[in-house]
From TrEMBL:
<keyword id="KW-0812">Transmembrane</keyword>
<feature type="transmembrane region" description="Helical">
    <location>
        <begin position="34"/>
        <end position="56"/>
    </location>
</feature>
<dbReference type="InterPro" id="IPR007341">
    <property type="entry name" value="Transgly_assoc"/>
</dbReference>
<feature type="transmembrane region" description="Helical">
    <location>
        <begin position="62"/>
        <end position="84"/>
    </location>
</feature>
<comment type="similarity">
    <text>Belongs to the UPF0410 family.</text>
</comment>
<feature type="transmembrane region" description="Helical">
    <location>
        <begin position="6"/>
        <end position="22"/>
    </location>
</feature>
<keyword id="KW-0472">Membrane</keyword>
<protein>
    <submittedName>
        <fullName>GlsB/YeaQ/YmgE family stress response membrane protein</fullName>
    </submittedName>
</protein>
<dbReference type="GO" id="GO:0005886">
    <property type="term" value="C:plasma membrane"/>
</dbReference>
<dbReference type="Pfam" id="PF04226">
    <property type="entry name" value="Transgly_assoc"/>
</dbReference>
<keyword id="KW-1133">Transmembrane helix</keyword>
<keyword id="KW-1003">Cell membrane</keyword>
Length: 86
């Protein structure tokens, strides 16, 4: 899975997506910038994989679509983590 982003792009997009996902899921107070970046990057992998299963080409879709893919995956990841913790 490749969203067409370089290393710095993964950090920036992942950080923003992880931070917004943590705001959506109410976990921002528990996470620092490092964990937000990690959640966003892992979310990008999850989102890209899920969209790939649906036949969506995420590699050439652009920056906004890459961000939305990371955000979707990050929200899914945080939801799963919250369910496991309960």
């Amino acid at each position: 899975m490749n969203l067409g982003l370089g290393f710095l792009g993964w950090i920036i997009i992942g950080g923003l997506a992880g931070w917004i996902a943590s705001k959506i899921k109410g976990t921002d107070a528990q996470q620092g910038i490092g964990l937000n970046i990690l959640v966003g990057v892992v979310g990008g992998i999850i989102g890209g994989w899920l969209l790939g299963l649906l036949g969506v080409d995420v590699a050439g879709a652009g920056l906004v679509f890459s961000f939305l893919t990371c955000l979707l995956g990050a929200v899914i990841l945080l939801t799963v983590v919250q369910l496991v913790r309960k």
